[in-house]
Each structure stands twice: as structure tokens, then as C-alpha cells.
Specification:
It holds the Pfam family Peptidase_C15. One of its GO terms (cellular component) is cytosol. The chain is α/β, with parallel strands linked by helices. It is built from 6 helices and 8 strands, in the order βαβαββββααβαβα.
């Protein structure tokens, strides 16, 4: 498809790391794609999904490339949080403090990086309220967070926020013991519906 002539939504999930041999974020994103295809609600909107390795170097080089390749109207990054009880909508991301090693046993070089906080331009409070309003339908609640964890999730969020904060969102999802993949996917679908309406995706 010609991504320059239609609305494209990019959704990413993460690959395995630590105890998460199967990452709930990527499993939910795959289910989201199935919901998207089967719903036929947004036939003029292309949904692109990408699995992101838990690697700082991969994120720093490939996230800008994904933006360039797909020219997305919306970018939704999804990651797993083991302590999450619902969907966690992240409000901002920080440039520094990434001390935890990735799957390559590496961390980013922050020597010449000035500390900065970037906020999403999306109205996260209204979005969160909207998800909770629809909670009975998809059995998936949401809350807001101001701490995205200073690991690959927040690092990825920051990379996209530097490109276009008005189109970028990060959502942490619970592990399988709290929500099933399809349950999480329904909540993510609801989030995309809100974003499409409010970002005038066309």
C-alpha cells in the first residue's frame, strides 16, 4: 500500500527479555491486528505492527527508520509491566537514567545527553477516562502514570516523542495472569478508536 496516500497507524510490542520468555505486549499487539482485520471498521486505515527487540541500539536506530518508512498518523508503543493491574497510559518519558542492561548486556551512552522530559501531546486524561467509560464492554480498565520505568519501554517512548509528540503514546499492559491477550487487545483497540477520532486520521 502507498503509505503516503492513506492513514497509517504503527503499533509496536516488545520481544522476550528476562522472565518474559513470551512478552505479553507483543502477544496483545498480534491480537489487536486480528481484531483490526476482522472488524472492518477502518478500511481506509492501515495498521502496521512491529516487534521490537529489548535493545537500546536497535531502538535508537530503528524507531526513526520506522517513522520514516511508514509516515504514521499515530504511533502506539506497547510494553509489559509485571505489576500492572490495568492498562497504564504513560504521560511522558525521560532522556537519561537508563542504567539497566538490555538483552545485549548494554546500556546507552548518556555522556553528552542533557536531561530532558518530553510529554505526549495527546490528552491522556481524556483518553484514560474514555477507556474506563467503556470498561464494561471490553473488561479492560486504565490509569495514568508519570514513571515509565527507565528501561526499554521509556527509552522507546522518548525516541518517538523526539520525532512527533502529538502522534505518540505509550501504554504498559499487564502480564497474562491479569489480562488475557485478547482482553488487552480490546483495550488497545478502544484506545486506537479514540486516537483516530481525536487526531483526525484520514
Amino acid at each position: 500500500m502507498d503509505v503516503d496516500s492513506e492513514c497509517t497507524i504503527l503499533v509496536t510490542g516488545f520481544g522476550p527479555f528476562d522472565k518474559y520468555v513470551v512478552n505479553a505486549s507483543w502477544e496483545a499487539v498480534k491480537e489487536l491486528q486480528k481484531l483490526w482485520i476482522n472488524s472492518k471498521e477502518f478500511l481506509d486505515i492501515e495498521l502496521v505492527i512491529e516487534e521490537i527487540p529489548v535493545s537500546y541500539s536497535y531502538v535508537s536506530t530503528q524507531i526513526p527508520q520506522l517513522w520514516k518508512k511508514h509516515n504514521p498518523t499515530i504511533v502506539l508503543h506497547v510494553g509489559v509491566a509485571g505489576t500492572a493491574e490495568s492498562l497504564i497510559i504513560e504521560c511522558h518519558a525521560r532522556s537519561n537514567g537508563y542504567e539497566r542492561l538490555d538483552i545485549d548486556r548494554k546500556r546507552p551512552d548518556e555522556t553528552n545527553i542533557e536531561y530532558n522530559i518530553l510529554k505526549t501531546g495527546i490528552d491522556v486524561k481524556e483518553l484514560c477516562d474514555n477507556v474506563n467509560k467503556n470498561c464494561e464492554k471490553h473488561k479492560c480498565g486504565a490509569c495514568l502514570s508519570h514513571n515509565a520505568g527507565k528501561y526499554l519501554c521509556e527509552y522507546t517512548y522518548y525516541q518517538s516523542l523526539t520525532i512527533e509528540p502529538t502522534k505518540t503514546l505509550f501504554v504498559h499492559v499487564p502480564d497474562f495472569n491479569k489480562y488475557s491477550s485478547i482482553q488487552t487487545a480490546k483495550g488497545l483497540y478502544d484506545i486506537l478508536c479514540y486516537l483516530i477520532r481525536n487526531l483526525k486520521c484520514n
